[in-house]
Specification:
The complex is a heterodimer.
Chain A lengths: L3 H11 L5 H24 L18 H32 L1 H16 L2 H15 L5 H28 L3 H10 L3 H36 E4 L2 E4 L3 H10 L3 H30 L16 H8 L1 H19 L15 H30 L5 H37 L2 H16 L6 H11 L3 H4 L2 H5 L2 H13 L3 H9 L4 H35 L1 E4 L2 E4 L3 H11 L2 H33 L4
Antiparallel strand pairs in A: 1-2, 3-4
Helix pairs in contact in A: 1-12, 2-3, 3-4, 3-6, 3-8, 3-10, 4-6, 4-23, 5-6, 5-23, 6-8, 8-9, 8-10, 9-10, 10-11, 14-19, 14-21, 14-23, 15-19, 19-21, 21-22, 21-23, 22-23
Chain B lengths: L7 E13 L5 E13 L3 E5 L6 H8 L7 E6 L2 E2 L7 E4 L11 H10 L5 H15 L14 H13 L5 E5 L7 H16 L7 E6 L2 H7 L2 E6 L4 E7 L11 H27 L13 H12 L6 E3 H7 L4 H13 L3 E3 L3 E4 L1 H6 L4 H15 L1 H12 L4 E3 H9 L4 H17 L4 E3 L4 E3 L1 H4 L1
Parallel strand pairs in B: 3-8, 3-9, 6-7, 7-8
Antiparallel strand pairs in B: 1-2, 1-4, 4-5, 9-10, 11-13, 12-13, 14-16, 15-16
Classes of the chains: A mainly alpha, B alpha/beta.
């Protein structure tokens, strides 16, 4: 917050010789800026939609592809952040907006992203014909849709749960809305937002693979990136290339975790609202490096100074615009008008949808979709049960041993971030080799990526289990099944439910890529809603894609409302002491 | 005093606050409040929890709009938070993500001042409040006392005309609270604070007498001003001083008299369902009875002394005492609590006999528990959901009071084996009791 000139002066006087930290940090900064520039330049070049062969499967191309893919992900993350700040803030501040925005967000969260990829691709391609920006934006949008919803929800919930004392303090200071946003609302939502950004980033990888190389009906394109590389490798039946891609992906994940998310988590620790000091303070060597580097501090000081001034300025609209105060009666009239408008809008949308879908679809289609939905539901349910039986005992065993948990937890989180669709070719290869039944053996692919959420949540639950309760159980010599049933399972239950909700949602989404997979020219598919949507996409059959998505969204929403949410409430209520 | 010194800073005229009941009728929490706060005055609002004193403070700060009456700040109607009013919160309400310096500066940012001026004023306030050396610390690194000092620095840095304090010392331990109180009074009496007047909410009677020039005692349900007590003592005040003790005793007498009056009135109204039950556990009540029966009290204790020697504040002591008074195991007697014959019989009894006595008194003197029992007996299933009673109570009480009242009734009824309650199904029943 000091003047930049003064800071620079101070630095040059007391720290004449830059140390090794300055060199490393400066080098890192310059390298990252150069790389970003290189990637961005390529993004806006000319592009023809049918060229699929440009993708090289030489492992030497992978670093560049990884850069392009990562840039897409961060572009999407930036868009998600912007969306979060506007959408969630609007929903939390305006009662009228809330009526529409929150249920919409709830549904959007449940709609399978991969399902409507086909619609958005067509839209963006028509927006920028014969320019790379079209498919590029389509891919970014696909990733965005996999990242934005949970971030917006998290921020909305933070805004709604700001403690009343600190809210009153801000009001009595008479902060402008702008100051309030940056001084109170964003910091308060920050821990949840950072956590959800990491989750989003993990989730995003899954969709990168699917969104870089797209074929909808006749329309085909492949953007340079890891996803296209994998698609090409599958087309060429090149198992070693798939292996290289997996390695490149793992390296990328480790890199951005160390360079971005660790520092972010360590930095965001100060936004924790609990007043008590944390037991384990998250640390990051990158953040320490940058904090200790005097040269860089001078370099960033003007930026810091600018941000500080912008954030603390009043920038109040209400001082320019005259305050408009409505009476109670007119408020009620506005409410009524708003409800009518919302109802009319919804009715119009439903009519438009029916018009679009009705001419080509019959009641048989509906039956087929319902039946497929039932099959996929069965798969999801069975898989969650199996994953629970496997991972809960293991998670408890790990969680109760702090030394082991400390090592396993990051691995579990890494596995959750890993896009398992990269492993699908291997599965197809095995199914073909041993001549297995696709209807059964394709199913595990759905849970492969999301089962880790159950594991690391249970680990977290078991680690947090109060040691006095464990000691009490030991004193009363509660062993065996009784110990599981009376002591530890109720203890980890709320954590398990949190993990299982994520896992089940993820499994639904994954069904679209897991129920229909290919290896070269061989195509395998199981009966189910995911395969239904995937095959319709390949055929460019938009009414059926829409029907499939609608069915899947409805089933996910129903499952959340009727099963998971009551379970969550129960878990919350039963395990509290007060 | 000079004439200009008597200018009113804040005036509340006929202020009322009501919340809507489920039935749509308003439920008053504050009624007919008239306050005039003049320059140079520390005014104390003293009352038990639920008397609406915090609501009143927020009305004075422009954070809550009253349902009726008028609030005048420097002779102009107050509409929303105004310049020159600062609040010190019970829970400190610091921004955990800002350092001490940034927290103090935050209050000035809203005024749109230049950064250099903000920095200078913040440093001055930090210096005055004794936070030097802690500028770059985050609140979580500080002790409770230091955190509240930040709360004070943040409030006075805007040079407030009116300082509002919401139980500012009640989240601190006894010794820390004492230090902060005397430090504040030193600054106040030496006119080192920019503040013209202070309005302070507290439930600690001695604190009120130690700090305030005038104390308004609030009664509950709805909150009204029950008494206005001037404290003409000079600072620094000695707690052991005769006059000091007389004022403390007087306040206890007023509070007990008010409680007795309201218990009597509410028991008669609406079949007794309008009577909020205090938050008092059976264990605490038994403990209080046993202590009263033992030496040196021998059945009668002066509440002011009792509270001091047992380090209890009125929100600790009064709920249990009030419950005992309701159940007629003890009774208020002009600032003292006296065992009744039933109370004397309760103390030496064994568990079963105690339960029997308790049950008898519950049925006789607490209309709600008797009502629950009757409903359960009348129903064929001998069971009823708790929401049934909660809704009924909300016709007469605020939602929070209704919840607390039902919780107390449940705990007392369970102890007396008057009925059973299953938290999983949220059902009252008497089947389990009968078997």
């Amino acid at each position: 917050m000091e003047r930049p000139a003064a800071t620079l002066l101070k630095w040059s006087r007391y720290h004449a010789a830059p140390g090794w930290r300055d060199v490393v940090a400066l080098g890192m900064t310059i390298l990252i800026i150069l790389l970003l520039g290189l990637g961005a330049q390529q993004m806006v070049g000319p592009f023809s939609a049918t060229e699929h062969s440009e993708i090289s499967i030489s492992p030497l191309a992978l670093p560049y592809y990884a850069l392009r893919t990562t840039m897409r992900m961060f572009a999407a993350l930036a868009a998600s952040l912007l969306f979060t700040f506007t959408y969630a803030t609007l929903a939390a501040k305006s009662r009228h907006a809330e009526i529409i925005l929150i249920p919409l967000l709830d549904v959007l969260q449940s709609v399978p992203v991969l399902g409507y990829l086909s619609f958005t691709v067509v839209f963006f391609m028509s927006l920028f014909p014969s320019n790379a920006l079209g498919p590029e934006l389509a891919a970014i949008f696909a990733i965005f849709t996999s990242q934005a919803w949970n971030m917006a929800f998290s921020f909305y919930q933070s805004l709604r749960t700001i403690p009343s004392d600190i809210d009153e303090a801000s009001r009595s200071f008479r902060f402008s809305s702008w100051q309030r946003f940056w001084r109170l609302e964003v910091p308060f939502g920050m821990p949840g937002l950072v956590w959800n950004m990491m989750m989003s980033m993990s989730g995003g990888w899954f969709f990168v693979v699917a969104s870089e190389a797209v074929s909808v009906g006749d329309l085909q394109f492949a953007l340079p990136g890891i996803g296209s590389y994998v698609a090409k490798a599958i087309e060429n039946r090149d198992l070693s290339a798939v292996g290289f891609a997996i390695a490149a992906m793992a390296a990328t994940i480790v890199l951005y975790d160390q360079l971005l998310f660790r520092p972010l988590v360590a930095w965001a620790d100060k936004f924790r609202f609990e007043q008590a000091a944390a037991q384990v303070v998250p640390r990051s060597w990158v953040l320490d490096l940058f904090r200790k580097t005097k040269a860089l501090k001078g370099l960033f000081a003007p930026i810091e100074w600018l941000i500080d001034h912008i954030v603390r300025a009043r920038l109040s609209l209400s001082s320019i615009l005259p305050a408009w105060r409505a009476s109670k009666l007119s408020l009620r009239v506005i409410d009524a008008l708003w409800f009518v408008a919302v109802a009319l809008g919804a009715a119009y949308l439903i009519r438009a949808l029916l018009r679009f879908v009705a001419p080509t679809l019959s009641i048989d289609d509906l039956m087929e979709v319902a039946q497929s939905g039932g099959l996929t539901f069965l798969r999801v349910a069975v898989l969650i049960v199996i994953a629970t039986l496997v991972w809960v005992p293991i998670g408890v065993a790990i969680g109760l041993r702090p030394a082991v948990a400390e090592r396993i937890q990051p691995i579990a989180q890494f596995l959750a971030a890993f896009p398992v669709n990269l492993l699908f070719p291997v599965a197809v290869y095995l199914i073909l080799k041993f001549d297995l039944e696709p209807n059964i053996w394709l199913s595990p692919l759905m849970i492969l990526g999301t089962q880790w959420y159950i594991l690391f949540n249970v680990i977290a639950g078991a680690s947090a289990f109060p040691s006095d309760l464990r000691e009490a159980a030991a004193t009363f010599r509660i062993h065996g099944w009784g110990w599981w049933r009376k002591v530890i399972l109720p203890g980890v239950f709320p954590y398990f439910v949190t993990g299982a909700i994520t896992a089940s949602g993820g499994a639904w989404n994954a069904s679209i890529v897991a129920e229909a997979v290919s290896w070269g020219r061989t195509k395998l598919s199981a009966d189910g809603l995911g395969a239904y949507i995937a095959l319709a996409t390949e055929a460019g059959d938009f009414p059926r894609i829409a029907l499939g998505i609608a069915m899947m969204s409805a089933m996910v929403v129903a499952m959340n409302r009727l099963f998971w949410r009551p379970l969550y409430t129960l878990a919350e209520r039963r395990t509290r002491l007060d | 005093m000079v004439e200009s010194n008597l200018k009113p800073v804040l005036e509340l005229q006929h202020v009322c606050k009501a919340f809507a009941k489920p039935s749509g009728e308003p439920l008053a929490v504050l009624s007919e409040i008239n306050i005039c706060l003049r320059e140079g005055e520390i005014l104390g609002l003293l009352g038990r929890s639920g008397s609406g004193k915090s609501t009143l403070l927020r009305i004075a700060g422009g954070l809550i709009k009253p349902t009726g009456g008028e609030v005048l700040y420097r002779a102009a109607p107050l509409e929303g938070p105004a310049e020159g009013i600062a609040i010190v919160f019970q829970t400190f309400a610091l921004f955990p993500w800002l350092t001490v310096l940034e927290n103090v500066e935050a209050g000035l940012d809203a005024l749109g001042l230049g950064h250099a001026e903000i920095r200078a004023r913040a440093m001055q306030a930090i210096d005055l409040i004794g936070l030097d050396g802690f500028q770059s610390a985050y609140p979580r690194e500080l002790s409770g006392g230091m955190r509240q000092r930040v709360g004070f620095a943040r409030a006075i840095v805007i040079n407030p005309v009116l300082l509002l304090m919401d139980e500012p010392f009640s989240a601190l331990d006894v010794l820390t609270a004492e230090t902060l109180r005397t430090d504040f009074l030193d600054l106040w009496t030496e006119h080192l604070l920019p503040t013209k007047s202070v309005l302070m909410v507290t439930h600690n009677i001695e604190e009120a007498v130690q700090m305030c020039d005038k104390i308004l005692v609030l009664s509950s349900n709805p909150g009204r001003i029950a008494a206005e007590i001037p404290v003409p003592l000079l600072h620094p005040r000695d707690r052991l001083d005769e006059e000091f003790r007389t004022i403390v005793d007087e306040i206890y007498s007023i509070l007990t008299a008010r409680t007795v009056e309201s218990i009597g009135a509410l028991r008669r109204a609406h079949g007794g369902l309008a009577q909020p039950l205090p938050r008092a556990s059976v264990n605490k009540m038994s403990g209080l009875l046993e202590t009263l029966a033992a030496q040196p009290y021998d059945g009668r204790a002066n509440l002011a002394e009792f509270a001091r020697s047992h380090r209890m504040e009125i929100d600790d002591l009064f709920p249990s005492a009030e419950a005992l008074h309701m159940l007629e195991f003890a009774e208020f007697d002009d600032g003292a609590l006296k065992l009744t014959a039933a109370g004397r019989a309760f103390v030496p009894s064994g568990t079963d006999e105690r339960k029997r006595l308790f049950k008898e008194h519950l049925l006789c003197f607490v209309p709600l528990t008797a009502h629950i029992r009757r409903v359960l007996e009348e129903r064929e299933s001998h069971a009823a959901p708790s929401t049934r009673f909660e809704i009924e109570l909300e016709d007469h009480l605020t939602a929070a009071d209704a919840k607390q009242t039902l919780r107390s009734a449940t705990a007392w009824g369970r102890y007396a084996e008057l009925f059973a309650y299953d938290d999983k199904t949220r059902m009252f029943s008497i089947i389990a009791v009968r078997e």
